[in-house]
Amino acid sequence: MIHLNSALLPPFMSSMLVGSVFVISLGVQNVTASANTTTTTVVTGGTTIQSGSATSIATNNTSTPNATSTEKLNVVTSVSPISNIVKNVAGEKITLTGLVPEGINSHTFELVPSDVVKVNDADLVIIDGLELEVNVEDVVDQAQNTNPDLQILKLGDNTITPNQYVFDFSFPEGTGDPNPHLWLNVPYAMKFANLTRDKLIEMDPANADYYTENTDRYVTKLRQLDEGIMKAVQTVPEENRKLLTYHDSWAYFAPRYGMVVIGAIQPSDFGQPTPREVASLIDQIKAENVPAIFGSEVFPTEVVDQIAKEANVQIVGTLSDDDLPGDPGDSQNSYVGMMLENMENMLVPLGGNVSALSNVDPADTYSSG
Ligand SMILES: [Zn+2]
């Protein structure tokens, strides 16, 4: 199977994509400009109305998107856990568009032309960073040529410094891309929420109190989640606090909660491991005597079952780093819900229990209106 990353497309193909959208975007801007000149209502910084009667303001509200103080910020996010964290901070005061569909792996996903349009129309793009969404960053760079007000917030890059980057099994230092899965460490997810709050207040100060209250409520829940995970891991026998996973997403989780990542099966090119790599993993599993190994929700593969069988491991659990459980609208379809499901699937097969997490409600916490 070949995964295409649009960042790896020949430059002429990316510019073809961006070039065609460039024209669409210009068209929209022309319409906006002419609407502004006919109503003569000018808004600066989203709040100050410099001219125009009440009537013309009302007209302008319905005919000119993005030109009034009542217009919501248009925010584009990448992976679904980040989309959900942003949603819990921003609630109903922004228009939120997630780029990476549920169940699609975030490492090799391709941007389609309609995604490029979404980025072009955005006020703010929020991503993890750490080289996870290089293709999105390229599109933002292009879009900023015609939309200089477009901002990008890289949560991960503002959460840890390069000397805290983890390079490991599927993210070796030689390739230069650090392990990007910061959000599986709950205090880092709290930082993501705080960074989002600060950026939204900067861009939309009229709703500062709303963003602050939502964030306080959400961070309280994340603190509960963090403490619950800490206690739940303690119920796993110490010699079993080891993770061997297919997808290498637990690099920042493990040190936080006292576990050790002993290996990952997926090679750094996201292809299949060689027979030789499989053989050495089997030896390692036998030597470490782990009771369970873990497959990935977004990278279903038979190789995990094959390794488990040959290493005589009884249990294969499934873990997820960017696929939220349930369907949109379900209370567990959230970042917190994903972490709760992961803990059940991870800690119980290793011999622990998750009763310390039974009081953590996965539902979103933002208030309506
Ligand atoms: Zn991942």
Largest pleated sheet: 4 strands, parallel
Q: What is the SS-derived class?
A: alpha/beta
What is the subunit arrangement here? single chain
How are helices and strands ordered from N to C?
HEEHEHEHEHEHHEHEHEHEH
Question: CATH superfamily name of the largest domain?
Answer: Nitrogenase molybdenum iron protein domain
Small ligands present? zinc ion
Which second-level CATH architecture of the largest domain applies?
A: 3-Layer(aba) Sandwich
Give unreliable regions as ranges: 1-68
Strand order of the largest sheet: 4-3-5-6
Mean of the pLDDT scores? Answer: 84
Helix content class:
40-55%
Morphology:
globular
Number of strands: 10
Give the domain tally.
3
CATH topology of the largest domain: Rossmann fold
Please compute the radius of gyration using only Cα atoms.
Answer: 23 Å
User: Helical element count?
Assistant: 11
Content of β-strand: 5-15%
Broad CATH class of the largest domain: Alpha Beta
